[in-house]
Task: structure prediction
Amino acid sequence: MDDLVANLKVALGSSGVLTGPAAAEKAQGGWSKLGAPKIVLRPASTDEVAQALKLCHAAGEAIVPWGGKTGLVEGGEADGRIALSLDRMNKIEEIDVAAGTATVQAGCVLQTVCEAVEAAGALFPLDLGARGSATIGGNISTNAGGNRVIRYGMMRDMVLGLEAVLADGTVISSMNHLIKNNAGYDLKQLFLGSEGTLGVVTRAVLRLRPKPLSQDTAYVAVEDFEQLPKFLRHMERALGGTLSAFEVMWEDFYKLVTTEPAKGKAPLEYGHPYYVLVESMGGNQEDDSARFEKALMASLESGEVVDAVIAKNQAERDAMWSLRDDVGQVARNFPIFTFDVSLKISDMESYIAEVREGLQAKWPESSLMVFGHLGDGNLHVIPGSLPAHNAETRKAVEQIVYAALRKRGGSVSAEHGIGLEKRPYLGWTRSPEEVALMRVLKAALDPKNILNPGKVLEPVVAHAKAAE
Amino acid sequence: MDDLVANLKVALGSSGVLTGPAAAEKAQGGWSKLGAPKIVLRPASTDEVAQALKLCHAAGEAIVPWGGKTGLVEGGEADGRIALSLDRMNKIEEIDVAAGTATVQAGCVLQTVCEAVEAAGALFPLDLGARGSATIGGNISTNAGGNRVIRYGMMRDMVLGLEAVLADGTVISSMNHLIKNNAGYDLKQLFLGSEGTLGVVTRAVLRLRPKPLSQDTAYVAVEDFEQLPKFLRHMERALGGTLSAFEVMWEDFYKLVTTEPAKGKAPLEYGHPYYVLVESMGGNQEDDSARFEKALMASLESGEVVDAVIAKNQAERDAMWSLRDDVGQVARNFPIFTFDVSLKISDMESYIAEVREGLQAKWPESSLMVFGHLGDGNLHVIPGSLPAHNAETRKAVEQIVYAALRKRGGSVSAEHGIGLEKRPYLGWTRSPEEVALMRVLKAALDPKNILNPGKVLEPVVAHAKAAE
Result:
């Protein structure tokens, strides 16, 4: 180990290799459970990442890649291991609005990239709560989702090319700038959403979109769940291609973020089971506002929605979004556990009813907050007011939330990933053949199992033991 | 071999195993160069595909998957081999408009699927010239592009889940119906665009879109190449999210498809270097037409375009599209060779000039037809009136077309794939490390190299010999 540290210091410089308290300190300050790494590497270039991986590969030492430390599933857990932070690789290399591309290093913070792109006159559409800390590399490794998937897709749809370093230090530079490129296998897909287990992403070419010239935002109240998908399809059709958000809140959550100590005010009266934040982004403010209002009026007339309020200015728009973003209020129901599931919209009503019933039967005092990106089939489900915040309670809650999901063919992770936290439930969403094929890929790309080992897939040894 | 045929007949039934003249006949009737297969298998179910692969795998016999036989790069070439046609697996299993999904077997013809989805009230947006014969399985295997990529993406963006059979007969059923699913590696990506070399696609879950309620189509004339990207960005912005096609024709091609014996009439006068077919699909015909006209007027005023004509009815719209679809006219310049390249829009003008110059220098009588999906960076480049249609001429033309492309970091295949035809040039677009990683994937998923061997990647043995 001393040899390895010495060699790493030669390759990365002393400031690129943190040990002892400096390493421990580097694990602080994020949202993620990271543990206490023995070493934190801070390479300043792709070449340094390659050298670090080559040295660790030769020594058989595992590496845990770190982005913005805002992952929610323990994907960056590095207790007693070597972590590799991309935080020094935070350069925006090029923004080319005419070509519709931004070339960035993996350690760039999402919000920084979005602001720079906007200043240049275009849009990078990824938008999520952790925007101020999450990095592009982390967004790629977790295939991030967020608020605008319904319009622009997930991170997978926003990356034209990328560069990644394989376990043995080989640099795969697929810095494609083209929208269409069918020359051989699309290798970037290997690194999108594989949570750092197949390679370390170092740079990327992002796809930019035209900056919208209009924004229209409203809250509506809906009386029956079955009206929600009808209202969604109506808005999709009526707004052409401009629907950019369709965020649903169950009434409990809506109340939570609009009552003190929350700062938000309720834009619509209480008393309805569902509230929807709906938004359109288009090309002409006057025309688009007229169209948005007409579409909402039609849904009021058809009875799909029973009440609606449209933001009259940017301040009102911001206030509407701040309710949706004030997810932190769920902590008022501590102890809580948070889930990020996806399922067919047509299954959602019965699913939530079954989860609620299961929780109530076991803990009559419990609460259940539900909100999410309904247009994408993605719900955030947050049981709270539970008896304890320990492993036992968590497991009992997981059984309730995931058993009802498994029956309906849902996914245990819509956008957060698997990491360590959801690993025991991967097989509830994926078949044994699928998991076996994931293992084939892992073994082919990382035969010594040094890249974020134990994340996503159970370690083979532990797995064999567990099966005994 | 006799044993294998006998076992295949037990597994697939006699009608599922064609040999001799029946096999040769099955290779006829498409656009693709398929050669003369010794056997054509016609499995009727995923289970039969799995059994066929298992038997061939055990016998070490290669399999060449066939879809609609309209591939353009010899990806289905099966001379002296066993071909596996998916044509009996042509069932549309389910169309669920509320959920936005269609579940289909791989042998379904694209147009059949599109029509069934439209009849159900939704849109499956893939649209390309071979729509009447190309199959969903082939569209997946080649990651098909076409006319609406600018709005809806490529086939990769339209597939939520799929089922594929691996080389050894293992069925990987990833029939995901969810828009968001980050539970482990996204395995479907392995089979999208890998041209049947990593698995045989048997079924798929397609993502449907809302059926557009409006369509506005126009031709415009553009005087300088540099106005084209400006006009494109202007229309993207001004039309919100509704721009659905941006097809550019160089004047030679525009003349070709509007002069006899072509049936089309020129919607705009000759004498401009570029013509653009531009289209918007939105939610309200009256509003959208007004917006479309306003956007075109603005570009006439700014000088981005110098002339424009808007289709007044469906017949005029169809006539406009029929020009773009009348690609067969290029045969008038026989001998021709067709190319499908992608590159940055800002490089296109100099690229085409260099190719034209190279062709003229060698063959002063030669012609050059250019048209394509400019919004996607994709051009179809068709040198013609060449001295001969043989391998030698072809190679000389390839050198001119691809050398100019390589300098500009373009791709030798935007949407057609690599197959056999472009295999020698894969390394002109992809790095040695990328090609090596493709080989790692191929070896991991198909260690006996029985799935469409020799396509995309040079055979390792031949490769080693060539390097000697």
Observations:
- Chain A touches chain B through 95 residues (CB under 8 Å).
